[in-house]
Amino acid sequence: AVHAYFHPQVDPSEAKLEWGFPKLDMLRQFMSDKLGWPPEKTDETLVPLARKMAEASGPDSRPRSQTTLDAFTRHVARQPDAGQGAAGTGHSKRVGAAILSHKRRQASRPIQN
């Protein structure tokens, strides 16, 4: 699991990420097929989220950006119990173990000037 966190398989595409609006009809179908939800239940969940997304992408909003895994691990690594599992961080034991392994690997490397 640690290897997968630090050496993920990624799409090599150089195409710029473009945020789009979710296709609600396709999500309704997916939720029906996978969870057995009727369209009304899916709408109870999705419509408020779709409204928030529409508001966030309005003319006065900032452009959205996707954060990196590095930013995520830096945030988690600052937690006092990073590497101790989910206790207090909201992250899984696997993420904690991967971060702890990474921190140990970084600490064992010689400092280069």
TrEMBL record:
InterPro entries: 5-3_exonuclease_C_sf. Its main location: nucleus. It is found in: Nucleus. GO terms for molecular function: DNA endonuclease activity; single-stranded DNA binding. This is DNA repair protein rad2. Keywords: Nucleus. It comes from Coemansia biformis. Residues 74-113 are annotated as: Disordered. One of its GO terms (cellular component) is nucleus. The keyword Iron-sulfur does not apply.
